[in-house]
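Lecture 7 notes: from sequence to structure.
We start with the chain below.
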Amino acid sequence: MRGRGSFKARYESTDCDSSSKKSNVRKKIAEYLFEISPNYSYTAEIAYHVRTTPSNVIGAIRGMDDRYKEDESLLNLDIVQEKSCGNNVRLYGITDFGKDLIKP
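Predicted structure tokens for the same chain:
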């Protein structure tokens, strides 16, 4: 299991503007999924609730080329889990590890 402090340090980073905005998207997604837990949500619904685009949600959750590094994705960090529901529908929910990071 990965170190618990590493995700918080990454998503609270303020090294540069774009990095901090991406970290903020990751944080908002994790917080939203925590709020709706134990339910799962799909990309467009997550985007609506965190006020970003579906492509930013996909990037934050799975990684996307150069914009969102795969090794910093919520799936790779074990913060979010994916459920496939046929017809290429993917639902996302927060993991127990993710809940531990979000809890006050």
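Points to note: Residues 1-6, 10-17 have pLDDT under 50 and may be disordered. The beta strands are 41-42, 80-84, 90-94.
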